[in-house]
Design a protein that fits this description.
Low-confidence stretches: none
Distance between the termini: 34 Å
Number of domains: 1
Shape: globular
Structural class: alpha+beta
Mean pLDDT: 95
Helix content: 40-55%
Strand order of the largest sheet: 1-2
Number of helices: 3
Radius of gyration: 13 Å
Strand content: 5-15%
Amino acid sequence: ITRDTMNNELQRIWMETGKTVVLVTHSIGEAVFLADKIVLLSPRPGRVQEVIDVTFPRPRDQSVSLDPEFQRIATYLRDKLDH
């Protein structure tokens, strides 16, 4: 099973159940693909630095990663994590 397959399955389960899901990941692409909100934490001690809304419609497929807004969010997160 690939990460993309698992992400699609998680999205399907979430959409069917409507339950709240909290996912911790170090993958920026995975976060932008799956999230409605991304909570960026500081280094130790972990504190909320920023909350970023992700507003792509659902269901999402891998083509969303080609959207300029997806790229903008991913680049922004990468820059924040690099500094």
